[in-house]
Structure formats: C-alpha cells, structure tokens
C-alpha cells in the first residue's frame, strides 16, 4: 500500500510513518524540509521513496501529489502556545485538513485516516469521555483549531467519505523529534517536581499509537463512516499512582508536593493574562491547569474491541522514555535513578575481560 503522509516529522507522525515502513508499506511524505526528513528516517534505517514540499493548504498541488496513492494519513498540525500565532494555526490546521481530505476525495482515495486529539472532548470534571461525548468548548488557539478541524473531518464523514479519526491522549515515548508537550511534562515530573492534585494524567505510548494507525489503515471501513472514530487513550494514572509508579521505575523518591487545584487554575489564569502583555513560552495556562486538575478519563474500549490491540504497561513506557530523555539531555543523569545505574553496570559487564 502506498500512503501519502503529512506530519511525518512530528512525534506522532514520525513514529506512525516508521511503523508503516516496518509493515512493508511505501510512503510519500509532505514535509517542510526534505533533507532533514530523509536524514531522520535514514538514521533509523528507513528510506523514503518520495517527499514533496508543497503548501498543505494548496488543494490542487495536493491532488497532484496524491495521484497513485492508496491511502492518506493526515497528522500534520501547527502547535504553539503563542497567541500571536493563532491565525497561522487556524489556517494551517483547519485549512490544511480541509485541503488534504478534499484532495484525497477528488483523487478517489478510499482509505483516509486523520489524527485529531482527545482534547476535543475535554469537559472539565466529567466522570469519563468517549466517542459519543459532545465536542468541547476549548479556549486556547491550538485547541480551538483542532476542534474546528474535527468539525471539518466529521463533515467529510457525514458526506460518505471513508475517513477514520483517532483521538490520542497525551503522547509519551522515546525518540521524540521535538519533545512534545506530554514528554515535556514527564521530563518535568522526573527532573523537577510532580505536583499532586485532583484527577490525573492520561497517556498513550507513541509506539502503541503508531501500531493503532497501521492497523486502521490496513482495515479501512466499508460502511458506518461516522462510527469510525476511535479514542486511543492508553492508560489513565491518578497523580498519586503516577508518583508511585515513577518512583518504582526510578528506585528513588520524587519531589511531589500536594497542590490545591484552585491554586493551579489561578496560576494558569495569571499566566494567560501576563502573556497578553508580554508573550512568552510556558506550559502554564488556564487550559493546561484545568487539564491537570479536571481531566476526565478517556475510554478507549471502542478501539480495543475492534482491533484486539492492547496498550503496553506504563512501566515499560516510562523506562524506555526516561532512558531516551537522559541520553538526549532532557533529564539529568542523576535524576534517572537506577535506570542509569543499570545501564552503566550493563556496559561495564559487557566491557569486562
């Protein structure tokens, strides 16, 4: 199968592309920097047949580039917390989704997969969410652009387009090209502090998500396209549980103070106000603090029941990810506990005469 892929230099897209290549599929990538994309995949032993560098909003150019492809995987998105980039994110994410899906329909491709986000279902304090949950009223520019992109994608489904949609939770895992938000959060928990408050952290291993995308592309729907929506949410960990699991993996104590959810949300509101005066990069925002204190667990049972796939343990995800983060310089070695100690002893044992 020849798959036209967008977003293959981002975290989710890159691992999904690697999994597709490992499964024997041929890829054509839409990228901004062809040389960098080829170097990244070739460093991991994978060759890309063709890359194109067209504007993701140019439907005519997309139509020409997709000719001869059997499937389309759309994971590209502009991501930023800078309010000055709101228009750019809207145009790229919403306009790009409309153009990519529209071009695929015009070419006659009958196997489409779009990567949305479980954030489109975020209703603070709800007991749980699933694919039937109404779309949320989100605030930040990126989240709003993903919600509107979701509206565009659902309209294609309503018109009978064979489009599947996935809704990942926080995506965590090793070999992250740009250190995504969830990985930054994990690095902060391990390297600095893990504030314990209400609700918890939901994460999916990027490798499990990649395998989910391969499975869906290899099993396109024939009917009921509006039911072809799948939360791929991995595992949910209350903050106390997350602390205990990380301490078990690391073999050391993690600084983990209890913080009032009201205090955290107030911090987010203050940060939002400050960014309007002097824009700066921070993970603290009203929406982020609402997520940290009011996140409803997301139910992946529809996808698991259909595919038969399962999510790996959190301990495996945490171990592999922290190992990688230490090597990449995102976490100090001294914070990795026995994970680094085991690595050092293994090397010494291998080198011993």
Distinctive features:
353 residues; alpha/beta; Rossmann fold; 3-stranded mixed β-sheet; 10 strands; 12% strand
- Which overall shape is indicated by the principal axes computed on the Cα atoms? globular
CATH topology of the domain at 2-175 and 203-235 and 296-311: Rossmann fold
Using only C-alpha atoms, the radius of gyration works out to 20 Å
First CA to last CA: what distance? Answer: 49 Å
In CATH, what is the homologous superfamily of the domain at 2-175 and 203-235 and 296-311?
A: NAD(P)-binding Rossmann-like Domain
CATH architecture of the domain at 2-175 and 203-235 and 296-311: 3-Layer(aba) Sandwich
- Stretches where pLDDT is under 50 for at least 5 consecutive residues are 343-353
Task: Say how many strands there are.
Answer: 10
Q: Which structural class matches the secondary elements?
A: alpha/beta
Order of strands, widest sheet: 3-2-1-4-5-6-9
Helix content bin: 40-55%
Strand content: 5-15%
Mean pLDDT over the full residue set:
92
* Main β sheet profile: 7 strands, parallel
């Amino acid at each position: 199968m020849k798959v036209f892929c967008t977003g293959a230099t981002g975290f989710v897209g890159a691992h999904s592309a690697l999994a597709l290549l490992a499964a024997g599929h041929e890829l054509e990538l839409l990228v901004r920097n062809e040389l960098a994309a080829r170097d990244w995949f070739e460093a991991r032993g994978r060759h890309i047949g063709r890359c194109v560098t067209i504007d993701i909003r140019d439907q005519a150019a997309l139509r020409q580039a997709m000719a001869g492809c059997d499937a389309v995987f759309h994971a590209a998105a502009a991501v930023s917390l800078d309010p000055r980039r709101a228009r750019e994110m809207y145009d790229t994410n919403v306009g790009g989704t409309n153009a990519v899906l529209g071009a695929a329909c015009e070419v006659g491709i009958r196997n489409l997969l779009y990567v949305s986000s479980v954030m489109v279902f975020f209703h603070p304090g709800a007991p749980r969410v699933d694919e039937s949950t109404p779309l949320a009223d989100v605030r930040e520019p990126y989240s709003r652009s993903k919600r509107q992109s979701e509206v565009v994608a659902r309209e294609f489904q309503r018109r009978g387009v064979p489009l599947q949609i996935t809704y990942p939770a926080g995506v965590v895992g090793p070999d992250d090209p740009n250190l995504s938000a969830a990985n930054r959060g994990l690095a902060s928990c391990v390297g600095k502090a893990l504030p314990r408050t209400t609700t918890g952290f939901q994460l999916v291993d990027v490798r499990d998500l990649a395998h989910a995308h391969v499975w869906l592309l290899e099993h396109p729907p024939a009917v009921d396209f509006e039911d072809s929506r799948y939360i791929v949410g991995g595992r949910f960990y209350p903050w106390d549980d997350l602390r205990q699991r990380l301490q078990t993996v690391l073999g050391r104590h993690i600084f983990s103070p209890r913080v009032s959810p009201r205090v955290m949300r107030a911090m987010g509101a203050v940060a939002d106000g400050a960014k309007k005066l002097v824009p700066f990069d921070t993970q603290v925002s009203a929406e982020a603090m609402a997520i940290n204190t009011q996140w409803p667990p997301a139910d992946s049972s529809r996808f698991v029941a259909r595919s038969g796939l399962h999510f790996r343990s959190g301990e495996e995800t945490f171990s592999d990810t922290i190992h990688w983060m230490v090597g990449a310089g995102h976490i100090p070695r001294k914070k990795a506990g026995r994970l680094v100690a085991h690595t050092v002893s293994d090397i010494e044992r291998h080198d011993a005469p």
